[in-house]
Every structure is written in structure tokens, then in C-alpha cells.
Amino acid sequence: MKKKFAFLFASLFLLGACSAGPSGSGSNGGSGDGGNKQEGDTIKIGLNLELSGAVAGYGTQERDGVELAVEKINEDGGILGKKVELVVKDNKSDSNEAATAAANLTTNDGVVAIIGPATSGATKASIPNVTKAQVPLITPSGTDDAITVNGETVQEYIFRSCFQDSFQGVILAKYANETLNAENVAILGDNSSDYAKGLTKAFEGEYKGNIVLKENFTKGDTDFQAVLTKIKDKDFDVLYVPGYYEEAGLIIKQAREMGIEQPIIGADGFGDEKMIQLAGAENVTNVFYTGHFSALAPANDTVEPFIAAFKEKYGKEPSTFNALAYDAMFMIKEAIESQDSADSVSITKGLSELKDFVGVTGNITMDANHNPEKSLVVVGFTDGKESSAEGVNP
Questions:
Q1: Any idea where the Leucine-binding protein domain is (predicted)?
Q2: Do domains 8-163+300-374 and 165-291 have the same CATH topology?
């Protein structure tokens, strides 16, 4: 059953190939003999994240979440009595760089698991190299359905701690239908990302009303006046904007300044405080998007201690991306402990069998396609602050 909650704080919330980099055996065993082996007194986990470039907002949040998790794990005695060591690579928000980082982490640094990239395109670019090395990868926020399943084939070494685009698109369509009572929808989507295309496709497949207009923009666009004028002239109840925070913030700002007052909905790509900064807090009213984490719609008893620990370390409230990455690290911990081994192939098996994992973003069971089964939250904003949340179970 759906329940509505008021939010006490503004949480922050993606995001959408090629292989690059050296090949060969990793220093902890390598791809030639069954993945990388855990050796020495530490368990090496790689981070392949967007720490600079266009979507650095996502990657830096995820780094903070992982670092908090590792700090807690090490303070509590590590994993199997060994400390966790992070090896951090900046993929610069570039898919080719992400592929190279994946190769370096697996073959040169000998990590036994990787967290990241944050975006769908960069994650897909990393798949060939981690698969060759037999090292598992968890993306905290790469939501493109094709990340974990290629055609009908499950990507053996690829997992995620977030839900996928098809789920978000379906939920947003239902939310438009059932909660916003929208009979007519206009769509303004990013045609340059797999993320946005997947969201659009899923929404169109589920929405029961009329799509009165479907327009596109391209990443990096800043002037939406012409397309918003076309939209304003239509009879619509909701504007659906599948895209990232950079463009979404400007679209919201320009739409509201033009007198477009209808609800604006989107997915977790809205989820960065920069979206509100770009839009102007006064314009972020009647705006809704899907998220993975909420303080006042807590999934379980782990949420409150996580929030307290995050605030103590970073001096601010945690975001969805912080929480997803935090969960990814603890998923790896649970996988290692379930197999009593920190070798990469054993971790892969542990992740594929993950069941009833209690994470701050929800209670997770990994399905056959390496996607987590867990709940989702639709967050509503008024004057730039969260004012409602609706939990939705899968």
C-alpha cells in the first residue's frame, strides 16, 4: 500500500561503449586464472567514478558514501579480519576514460571488486574490461536496463544497487495517471543519453492517457524557450522531463518564468542540489521525481544511524547517491562474508545470491537479472524543498 510522508530535509538525488586500456593479468591473480585473488592484509576495492567533468555531482557524492561505509567497516574490524583499501580512479565523466579506469583497476591494481561508474553510458563502457578480468562491478546509479542484460544474456559480473529505468518509467507513468490525474502529458526528453531514452520508452509503454507532444533536447543545451513555447500552446496536465539535473534545472526555471505551472516530473537524474540552484528554489514547486532513499520514508532501522554518521562526517544531510554507494560497499561486504572469500569470482557469486540484504535504500534481494528488488520513493518539492514522498513497492 502506498503511504505519504512529509520530508524534513532536502535530499539530493543518472543517468546514461567501448573497451579501452591494457589487458593481461591482475596483480592479485588477474583474468587469466579465474579473476583477481585477495592477497595481503587488505581487501582492495576499486572506485571508478565521475569525480570531474559534466556529471561530477553524482560521482563525488558516491565517493563520499563509499568512504563512509569503508570507515565504518574498518572501525568494526574489517571484512574477514582484513581492512578495506580503496583504489580511486576519476573517469572524468567520459566513457572512454571509464573503460580505461576499469582496465587499470583490474589488471594493474588487482582490485577484487569495483564500485561505479555512476552513469549508464560509462558503466556500459566498463563492462568488457571487468568481464574479461572476471571482477564484479556494482553501479550505484546506472539505471539503463541494458547494463545488466545484453539482449537475453545476463552480464555475469555486472550488478547495481539502484533500480532500473524501466521501473522508474513505469512508476512515473502510474504516478501521472493515478496521483496527478493527468489525462494529457507533454514529453521533453534528452535524446543524447541512453538513460533518458530508456525512461521515455518505459513511460510511453505504461502511460494510459494522451501524449500530446513529444520534443527533444541535447545534453548541453541551455535555451529552451522555443520548445517550451510549443509545449505551452498545448493542452497538457503534466510535463515529463527525462534527463539530468543540468538541463532539468534550466527547463524548470524557464518553464515557470513563461507561466507554465503544471506539474513537472522526472527521474533520479534530477537528484542533485544543483538542479534547485539552476532552477531557483522559488521555481521548484509542483516538481516530482523518483528516488531511492528518504529520511522520512525510511526503509528500515539502518537509515537513522546512517544519516547521523553522514552528518557527523560531512556536516550535511545524505543524498540518494550517497546512500546508494554506501549500500554498494556493504553489499560487497555481505557477498564476501557469505562466501568466506574475498576473491573476485567468489564475490560475484555472493552478489548474485544476495537475499534480504538490509540496506539504507531498502531491503534488497538480487533478481536473476542482477537488479535489486526493493521499493522506490516519489519525492515532491515546494519552493525547492521536499514536501511530500510516496513509497512504492516493486
A1: 42-382
A2: yes
Q: Which CATH architecture has domain 8-163+300-374?
A: 3-Layer(aba) Sandwich (3.40)
Query: Beta strand 149-150 with 153-154: parallel, antiparallel or unpaired?
Result: antiparallel
| Whether the Cβ atoms of residue 96 and residue 126 lie closer than 8 Å to each other | no
Q: Is the dihedral of CA 274, 123, 116, 94 positive or negative?
A: negative
Residue-range domain boundaries for the chain? 8-163+300-374, 165-291
Is 18:125 a contact under the CB 8 Å cutoff?
A: yes
Q: pLDDT for 40-95, tens place per residue?
A: 999 999 999 999 998 999 999 999 999 999 999 999 999 999 999 999 999 999 99
Give the architecture-level CATH label for domain 165-291: 3-Layer(aba) Sandwich (3.40)
Radius of gyration of the chain (CA): 20
Whether the Cβ atoms of residue 15 and residue 120 lie closer than 8 Å to each other: yes
Residues 6 or more apart from 192 whose CB is under 8 A from it? 218, 219
Nearest residue to 310 via CA among 293, 332, 289: 293
Residue showing cell 516530482: 288
Q: Is the separation of the CB atoms in 88 and 63 below 8 Å?
A: yes
Q: Cβ distance 195 to 119 under 8 Å?
A: yes
- d(CA 91, CA 115) in angstroms, rounded, equals 12
Contact 289, 277 (CB under 8 A): no
- Rounded to whole angstroms, the Cα distance separating 194 from 182 reads 26
228-281 pLDDT per residue, tens = 999 999 999 999 999 999 999 999 999 999 999 999 999 988 988 899 999 999
